[in-house]
Amino acid sequence: MSAPERRGWRASLAPLGHRNYALVWWAGLISNVGTWMETVAVGDLVAVRTDQAGWTALVAAAGFLPMGLLGPIAGALADRLDRRRLLVAMTSVQMLAAAVLAALAAADRVSPGLLAVVVFVAGCVAGLGFPAYSAMLPDLVPPEDLLAGMSLSQAQWNLGRVVGPALAGAAIALGSYATAFAVNAASFAVMLLALRALRLPPTVPPTDDDPLWTRIKVGATTAWAVPGVRSAIVLISIVALTASPFIALVPAMARVHFDGDAGLTARLVTAQGIGAVLGALALPVLAERFGRYRMLLAGLGALAVLLVAYGLAPSPLVATIAIVGVGAAYMSVLSGIGTVVQLRAPTALRARVLSFYFLALGVVYPIGATLQGPVADRVGLGVVTASSGVVMVAALLVVRLVRPARFAALDDQPDQPDQPGSVSRPAAR
Predict the structure, then answer these.
(1) Residue of 63, 138, 252, 403 with fewest CB within 10 Å of its CB?
(2) What CA–CA distance (Å, rounded) separates 299 from 333?
(3) Would 427 be classed as within a structural domain?
(4) Is the pLDDT of residue 194 over 60?
């Protein structure tokens, strides 16, 4: 069925009709359930041991920072090496890291500092593999299904966020952080089986013999030269610095701000995941009707308002309701910005261009989290979270007034002419 013939939810779910995409999607869902079990367990353990938002933010940042720092190197490797084989190697190491964490927890040998080290190492591995996965995504679906494919991938990640925290909360309630870590290790094994079952043409290595640094430089130059990509990098940097840190601070919001337990941590993370799933599924439908650009702007506005509501929530119940909306808005923003980069990046340089997009997200987000965490310990987490929405809007307005072309470049434009099989314009407006 062609793109014009698909409407509504059928368009949103169309990528699952492609074997390779469905294989990776379902295995990824299982893996992400395990990942979110580990994420919640780590955050809750740190919050319990330290009772400080600063420490919670620091450990979360330790896991995410390597994705940004290693992204350009990983992108250059992903454009030269077979992406499937690279992902198999990285997933194997991630499985080992999760198993080590489970063993340490079972022996009660974990501390916030040790957790930060282990999480950082796991983040390094994820950082090396993620550009390869992102660059492989357009090879799993046709161009007309790319936006839906990206949205479903985000939905998959957040479906894991719905199920994983609930399972983690149950494990923690039974007094076993180690169980959460062990399940994550097993989930990586499922992903390995799926990757080995993929039927994809091998990545065609580039004909040039340029050294790694030169290839990284080419990726950086290209990313900044393509107007839509440059604008996406600027925009994601603003969002990552101001809005994104709420994710790292959810355990502190539950344990420190509301004086709750692991169940509240799991509930808030799950609620955010539900919102993100709904947002990811609804985005292709709404983008088809109103256009991707308009939905991106609407998502940014909604994210700011809902962050204020979440930060100023007078009770855990209100916070839970508010974070559902935050999750939906945040996911629409990430999917919208990420689609711009996917569609604008030249095929031969896609992984390297994507790596600089993730460099911005991966470096700026930890900076934002490590800044907001200590401030929250002094003035209150609710105030900091609510203020982040206001600051984000202010920063976006400054960019809009000073550099109006930045926002204009995010609107639909012709795809890169060197992309085989691309259409003259992105499929859904």
Answers:
(1) 403
(2) 6
(3) no
(4) yes
